[in-house]
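Can't attach files on this board, so I'm pasting raw text. These are the components:
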Amino acid sequence: MTRLAELPLAGGINNEFFLFVIAVLFIIFGANSFWGLFQKIVEKRKTKRETSLDEKRLDFEVDKFNIETMQKAIISLNGDYKRVREENANLANEVSQLKVNYLLQQEKNAALTRYIYKAVSRRRAEGAPLIPVDDSDVAVIPEIVALVR
Amino acid sequence: MYAPDETPGRRKNWGVIYIILTLMGLFALIPSFAPVKLGIGWPWILAWGLPMLVGFGASALAAFNDNKWVWLENTAAWLGNAGLSVYVLTLVQSVAMAGTASLPGTLGYIALLVIMVSRAYRLQRYLKKQRRLKEIVRIAHRNDKAG
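---
Top answer:
Structure tokens for the assembled complex are below.
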């Protein structure tokens, strides 16, 4: 029987080229193996951080429907959501503009009311009638006449 | 779009192949079954048998469970491939340098390694796609919370 040491390959891969090839293969395969493990750990950490997102349910959904369908649906829904949010922001802008206009108008009204009160009290002090007698009596309180018209 | 075999039935078929390869790794480690003809020595036998036993063993376990264990199947399959590549390279060297191994057998083992690497690569792509999908869901979820 031939002894192991006498065989040309005793000692395993001993050719330099094949040693190089096996080293490269080991590095590539080992790196892939560790990369998979690393990604899983990263995934776990993300899940831990985002406790509000139910990862188990997400896994279940991914298994139930196929990935492509969900991917398309989510991308489309996300697009819809972005558009709706944009519209919402535009509407909010319009509403705030209307609010500003409303406040400005209120301010104008308040200023006019104050002016009218002052004018009325001045007319009272002068002893003049407060209500215009006819259309030509525009000088009574011109602002009130203008408002009435 | 590329569809990896994520259905349980087909994963179980791969599980059977993993079991066969696990047994191959196991038998390499048992002295009475070790390939005397190649005479590759214990360090190489260990570098061949252990990763195959651990890697393909874990892959087989993962393959007979549900899809959430695909990550383990992927990680372990790469480890097993590393072990298998030692054996394949030994055969290739023995054919090229000494002619002690049979050429058809060696070609068969090369094909097996290529198939197993392609399987592991497909699993990796499947997992990458799944991670990307989850990332999209996370972004949508964050948008939802921000809105």
